[in-house]
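Hi Q.,

Before the meeting this afternoon, I wanted you to have the magnesium ion prediction in hand. No need to reply - just skim if you have a minute. The sequence and ligand are here:
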Amino acid sequence: MSTDLPTPTTPAAQAASAAPQVPAQAASAPPQVATIATLARHEGQSVTLRGWLYNLRESGKLLFPIFRDGTGTIQGVAHVKSVSSVVFEALKGLTQESSVIVTGKVRADKRAHGGFELDIEDLQVVQRVPESDPYPITLKEHGVDFLMEHRHLWVRSPRQSAILRIRAEIMRAAAEYFDSNGFIRTDPPILTPAACEGTSTLFPVDYFGDPAFLTQSGQLYVEATALALGKVYSFGPTFRAEKSKTRRHLTEFWMIEPEVAFMDLDGLLELAENFLSHIVQSVLKNRASELQVIGRDPAKLEAICPPFPRLRYDEACEMLNQAHKDGHLEAPFTYGNDFGSPDETWLSSQFDRPVMVHRYPADVKAFYMEPDPADARYALCVDVLAPEGYGEIIGGSQRVSSYELLNARIEHHNLPKEAFEWYLDLRRYGSVPHSGFGMGIERAVAWICGLDHVRETIPFARTLHRIYP
Ligand code: 4AD
Ligand code: MG
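Predicted structure with the ligand bound:
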């Protein structure tokens, strides 16, 4: 690729290109523009990088700037005698996060992070951060509140960038799994007339004078498209007005939701384990260096392949009771409840791969879940709990297929009948057994990256007390 750099306009760059000590570049072959991630291809060559000054170490006649360009970081070396005085002066004392265009020769160095260093030849400062108003995030420790308040800048840190790269890979691999297995992506509306996941966590919207809500899940709509297209999925933002302040809850998060006609709960469990394994293996293959940047042990992820353990809700309860007796859990578990966070944390930490807990009591689960024909007190549903104490990352079920039962459930849950007429149509006209699940991307990112909190898994987190920046 030939360079699309502007001709040097700053005095530094002009003087640098005129200075005799700078190695002359043939006018016909300017240094290639490269990225830090691909420097291995340019060993021994002069390249131009475009990025920012991450850090600068000065030791008399030697300057050691560290540049970042979004693909990685690299240390540069500039000796007072190896570059023009203008370049040396421009670099000396250069402020953190100043934007730069830097040219230098790529030199392999086993000790260097990433395996290369850059012997600087030329430097153009695009914007110098003024000393009077320095970059607020220094390389010292900052509190999380401060960092979240500066999230628009915090995303530049190598660790945060690595997390966002892994997030992107998880989203890519998730979509790839469905795209390459015969699923059609059908995205549901975000503005909806009714609740999918309980009426207590709805964000109301004024829709030209009528009440509407931000969607909690695309499920009801992918049920419709599944009966049209067979195997479908949706992928988009979803909203929950959760008043919870846990490390697992966002008010806005991204969910990927497959839905399959004629699939039963057993088929859904298989789909979930293959899907999750594909995602984890893709991250291991394509984002190994990012996992290293964030200090995530890949061995924990290498274990993630089918089959995943399956546990009935009742068996999980027995484990929780035993854990309480043995002093691992403070509160005793009340049979019939949904699991709390400490319960899920404990259960999921008992296995080296995700555990699929199925057949919860129907009463604690959503109105649309099919009862188990073997015992109608249980729902044909599954929660997939990620290991290492991460807890629920997937929730899904087989769906009620009988019109009469679904109608009775809607009445029993006091849901507005008119808003659900179209959903009942799916049982009036050619109803079939069908199943689906939803995976919250941020929960998956937190687990795969080994993070304490979901707030670092999304570029700009929305939580109970945060809607800035
Ligand atoms: O278990 P949930 O509520 O299930 C549903 O919404 C179904 N309608 C999905 C379906 O069957 N198509 O949510 C599914 C997943 C959870 O397992 C979790 O990963 C994520 O969405 N999730 C959240 N993530 C972050 N913050 C929140 N407040 C979340 N609530 C759910
Ligand atoms: Mg759930």
